[in-house]
Structure formats: C-alpha cells, structure tokens
Amino acid sequence: MSESTPPSGPPVDANPYATAPAAPADQPPVPPGTAVPQGAPQFAAQPGFPVAPAAPAGPVRNNFPLGLVAAIGAGVVSAILYGLVTGLTKHEIGYAAVGVGFLVGIAAGRVGGRSQTLPVASVIVSVAAIYLGQLIGEAMIIADHFDVGFSKVFFDHFSVAQEAWKADADPLTFVFFAIAAYVAFQSTRKAGHGH
User: Which of 21, 38, 60, 104 has minimal Cβ neighbours within 10 Å of its Cβ?
Assistant: First the structure.
C-alpha cells in the first residue's frame, strides 16, 4: 500500500489534502489561500453534463373508490371465467378460486393503493365473484342438460340456477369462498403496499 501525500500548493482551510476550487472559465482564478464566500456554489456544472434534479417520490395512493371500481371490474371478469371453467368441466376447481381472489386483490391494491378498508372490500367482491361464477357454471350445466340457451336459463330462470346451486352446495363450496377471500385480502394488502 502506498501512503497518500498531500497535494502541492497551499492548504485550504487548514486541510492539507484539500485544494482550492477551480474558478469558472469566465472569471479570474481564485488566489491561493482565499476562502470561498459562504453560500457560494462550490462546484459549477460541467459543460456537456447538465445536472438534472432528482425526481420527487410519487405520492402514496389511497384511492378507495377507484380501487373498489377496479375490484368490481376484476370480480365480474373473473366470475365469468370461473363460471366458464365450472360449466365446461362440471366441477369446481380450487385453483380457479385462488385466481379469482388474486385478480380481485391485485386490481384493488394496484389501483386503490394503501387504503385500509380496501382489503375488506376485496374480500366481499371476491366472495360475490365466486358465487356469481358458480351460478354461471350451474346455468351452463342446466342449459346443456335441457338443450336450451344459457341466456334463457340465466336471465329468464335465474331462480332455477340458484336452486341448483343450493342443492349442489357442499362444504367444499364454502372452502372455495374462504380461499378466494383469503387470497383477495392478502393480495390487496401486498399490492397496495408495493407502491
């Protein structure tokens, strides 16, 4: 290792390792030993390298209404997808319930931010989305069984789809509600705090 040696020239403010700052090109050089006035800029911007100010941190979002709208939109889309999966396979699939909760939670958290009530609202929306998806699936199964159109069963005879859902509901049905609720709550919190 080599020892550092003080630079040649007079010390600045009794510091042997400091050198006097260079004067800008359009001003005469500062004589050695002259102190720079208090508050004067120490270093001028270098030509060709403009100094850009640092961007301020973005505001923390806390927009409950917008997050709720995003959650409802994601809930409707995921309910339709969940209903299609249930109707086509004629089975409830647990991973689809996880997907519903995740989509609702991510949409609510990303758009709504750190709202304290948004995770609870996303739980309600995800449970409603699971229920709507199961009703869509039941209506698809009934329409296929009786060879009628889905819209006829779902819109004209909605009570038939609800009665079929009640008859088919078992403990596993409610486990899917719980899974979607848990995933929605956690993903809303994590997505909202990720900003």
Answer: 38
Q: Are 122 and 186 in contact (CB under 8 A)?
A: no
| 3 state DSSP class of 44 | coil
For residue 59, give the DSSP letter: P
| Residue-wise pLDDT tens digits, 123-181 | 999 999 999 999 999 999 999 999 999 999 999 999 999 999 999 999 988 998 999 99
6 has a pLDDT exceeding 80: no
Cα–Cα distance measured from residue 122 to residue 64, given in angstroms and rounded to the nearest whole number:
11
Q: Which amino acid is at 168?
A: D
- Percentage of residues in the chain with pLDDT exceeding 70? 68
Distances (CA, A) of 55 to 44, 50, 115, 139: 21, 15, 25, 53
Amino acid at 77: V
Show Cβ contacts of residue 93 under 8 Å, excluding neighbours closer than 6 positions. 85, 86
C-alpha 101/C-alpha 95 separation (Å) is 10
Q: Is 188 helix (H, G, I), strand (E, B) or coil?
A: helix
Distance CA 152, CA 158 (A): 9
Say how far apart CA 182 and CA 188 lie, in whole Å.
10
Half-sphere exposure of 98 (CA within 13 A, CB side): 3
